[in-house]
């Protein structure tokens, strides 16, 4: 019998794309997409309405004989979840319950977790390129990044309790593309973009297609480990804003959050302390490990991935303008 895979978070863009990508892949017999609300468009995969925070998720894993769990369900912005407290509940408690279900389900043999490079934090003491073995010198203290750090801790605990399960964690740089809309893309597309006075951080991007492809490879190749994923090269924040035609407003770091929130007018843009540090110091990943162990080289450089975002935004503007 082939693999039965379950993908969490399929009501959101990337989770839905991931579930559909796994359908008809060699060796995978069945793909089940799970979320608390139905996806906005029909999936090629099966959809089951379920809450990973509910212990009943164990029943679903057992009854379906799930071999592979792809956890795409960590929410990046409070607005997506309906508030910060609910966001943390979904991200952290939901992951704990999911991992508990995986631990109890004897059929589970693979766990793949979508994480973020934000777990490294950002600061002046960071190395020029951050490898997977680097200990965060400025660990995140709030929001999605801190949730992701906690999620990874629980994943490592699960791996110790179930050494028979292959575990992979993918730490993505900013994922962008024609269809991706995130807190970072919301920030970059503000009418006037507040920046940190005297700094021009180095940014990296991953095209949405590359994010899906590396996850697919890890699932099919059954590769275990923690991997940085980013397009080659960097894009300076000033270059990104120039390509988007967005004026910047250089400000002292201390006032960026208050001014930014006022200018954002309820958009997804993030002005937490950790994000402001990122907008000050940037972050560049060493991706040699994913190349050597997974054999994955992104099709798009950081600059090309960002270009896809720019084209997608311009197409939206022309369609609605």
What's the quick description here?
The strands form 4 sheets. Strands 3-2-1-4-5-6-11 form a 7-stranded parallel beta sheet, with helices on both faces. Strands 7-10 form a two-stranded parallel ribbon. The protein has a two-stranded parallel sheet with strand order 8-13. The chain is built from 12 helices and 13 strands. It is 42% helix and 18% strand.
CATH level-3 fold name of one domain: Rossmann fold
How much of the sequence lies in strands comes to 15-25%
Helix percentage range? 40-55%
Count of DSSP-assigned helices:
12
Which descriptor suits the 3D outline? globular
Global Rg: 19 Å
Q: Oligomeric state of the chains? A: single chain
How would you characterize this protein structure?
With 321 residues, the protein is of the alpha/beta class. It has a domain at 3-178 and 204-231 and 285-300: Rossmann fold. Helices cover 42% and strands 18% of the residues. It has helices at residues 13-22, 57-64, 78-81, 84-104, 143-161, 183-188, 208-221, 237-244, 256-264, 273-281, 288-294, 302-320; strands spanning 3-8, 28-35, 46-49, 68-71, 110-116, 166-172, 174-176, 193-196, 202-203, 205-207, 225-229, 235-236, 248-251.
